[in-house]
Amino acid sequence: FFFQAEDGIRDFCLSRGLGDVYKRQAQELASIALATAATARDIVGMEPRVAMLSFSTKGSASHEMVDKVVEATRLAKEMAPDLKIDGELQADAALVEKVGAQKAPGSEIAGQANVLVLSLIHICRCRRIERCRSRWSPYP
To answer: Based on the number of CB atoms within 10 Å of its own CB, is 45 exposed (0-12), middle (13-18) or buried (19 or more)?
Structure first.
C-alpha cells in the first residue's frame, strides 16, 4: 500500500506479511522488507527509511515474534548494507520524532520512517497507524 500524507510531509509505503505470520521465518520478513524498500524507491521514487514494526521497541518486550523482527532486521542489514532500516520499533517510535528520540535514541529511522513493514496483523490496528491512515490518501 502506498499513501501520501495530506500535509505533504511524508509519503509512506506499507507492507504487511500476509498469511500465518507465526510461521513466517525471519528470512521471509527480511525479504519482504527489501522488496518493499525497492518498490518504494523504484515505483514511488522515495528514498526508503524502513521501520520493522513490532509491539516492542528496542527490547521493551520479550517474545518470540519480537525476536523474529530483530533477526529479520539483522538479516536485511546484511543483505542490503546501504539500506536505512531499523527494528524492532513500535509504530509511534517509527513515525513520531519526539517518541522515536525517546524510545530509540541514536536510531536514524525512529521518527523518520517512510516504509513500514508490519509483521503482525494486530499492529495494523494500532492507534498511531489508524490516526495516520485517516490523514493519508492512496496513491493514484
So the answer is: exposed
Which residues 6+ apart lie within 8 Å of 34 measured at CB?
Answer: 76, 79, 80, 83
Say what the pLDDT of residue 92 is. 86
How far apart, in whole angstroms, are the C-alpha atoms of residue 44 and residue 101?
A: 27
How many helices, marked H, and strands, marked E, lie in the chain?
A: 5, 6
Query: Residue 93: how many CB atoms within 10 A of its CB?
Result: 30
- Block means of pLDDT (10 residues each) for the chain, 140 residues, are 52 53 78 90 88 88 88 97 94 89 95 82 50 45
d(C-alpha 140, C-alpha 137), whole Å: 9
